[in-house]
Amino acid sequence: MNMAATLTIQNVVARPVLLPLERPVVARIATITEWPLILIDLYTEQGIVGRSYLEPYTPRTMRYLVPALHDLGELLKGQQVAPVDLYETTRRSLHFVGYEGMSAIAVSGIDMAAWDAVAKATSQPLCELLGGSVGPVRAYNSNGLWLQEPEVVGEEAAVLRDEGGFGGLKLRLGRERIDDDLDAIAAVRESVGDDMHLMVDFNQGLSLAEALERCDVIDDLGLTWIEEPIVYDDLDNYQKLSADLRTPIQIGENFYGPRALHRAIQMEACDYVMPDFMRIGGITGWLRAAAIAGAAGVPMSTHLYPEVAAHVMRVTETAHWLEWQSWADPILKQPYEITGGELHIPNVPGVGLEWNEKAIAAHAFA
User: Fold this and answer.
1) How crowded is residue 10: how many other Cβ atoms within 10 Å of its Cβ?
2) Listed residue (197, 336, 339) closest to 272, CA to CA
3) At what angle do helices 282-296 and 102-121 cross, to 10 degrees?
């Protein structure tokens, strides 16, 4: 008998943890020293446990998301673990409150755990269940290069490169003075060379007037992309920036669901897209979004969640870059290996997430 066809949900357990960041996030809009994670265990009557996690940015958010996840678990109790069906059921339950915000994030967490459970039931890595194969995925290091002094980011760039032989790094911009941003870019280039793919991210920190000025100044510096210079939902002005600049504009971590990605592509508001799994709709949402990006020929990168990201990138038509961050590694028994600038998928059933219970106990969020 096919165990995947008989999997039924017993309950869902969500646990919040708060991890210290080795390199604090220092962006124009926020400084973050501790990283919140919600660990999700989807238990089945057959003994298989599907696992996933969410990264909701602020600790306070976990106080709302954990009950929402438990509520969805009650809604789904006794149902077959069929990820697409569960995705539709949970979304329908949100018709009156809407598909965006924390409700959508909770749905995404359940979806990722459901896919993990089904892949485990079939004794396949998730990428194989999705029709692909186990293999490496090109990644860039996004673990640092925040708004620090140019000499500091220059030194850190070489360290980040050597963490996994990376051929790409992400540098954050948005200092008070344009010249300081330019000095930071120059310091990174001097440290790691012109052959390094360099992505820059303003983290939505600029007004349109600032973006028009600053993006024009950096447009001839050979950057791989310019990410989110203005607030994420201002697609009209992203359209203007994309039309005016030679450097590709990258957006998408704030797309809530595949239709948001479709709308941005239709408007020509960006050149590249990089959905975030907790907003796009988990793995089901990603697959639907990837079909849209593939049909349009738009390169598609990932945002956070490197373990899940590696699997789906193996089946994404326009797969571009995987964003690698090790922020969840402390609570994982066996983090993924990264060498030669590539993330390597372990040949184990599911996504390959196993919790480090000792670390979880030490960092539990009350």
Assistant:
1) 17
2) 197
3) 90
pTM attached to this predicted model: 0.95
Could you report the per-residue pLDDT of 217-266, keeping only the tens digit for each? Answer: 999 999 999 999 999 999 999 999 999 999 999 999 999 999 999 999 99
> How crowded is residue 146: how many other Cβ atoms within 10 Å of its Cβ?
22
Alpha carbon 94 to chain centroid, angstroms: 23
- 267: tokens are 């408007």
Cα–Cα distance between 25 and 122 in angstroms, integer? 39
Q: Render the burial of 278-305: b for 16+ CB within 10 Å, e for the rest.
A: bbbbbbbbbbbbbebbeeeebbbbbbbb
Q: DSSP strand E in the chain: where?
A: 9-26, 31-44, 49-54, 136-141, 168-172, 197-201, 225-227, 249-251, 272-273, 322-324, 337-339, 342-344
pLDDT exceeding 90 applies to what percent of the chain?
92
Backbone angles phi, psi at 263, to 5 degrees: -65, -45
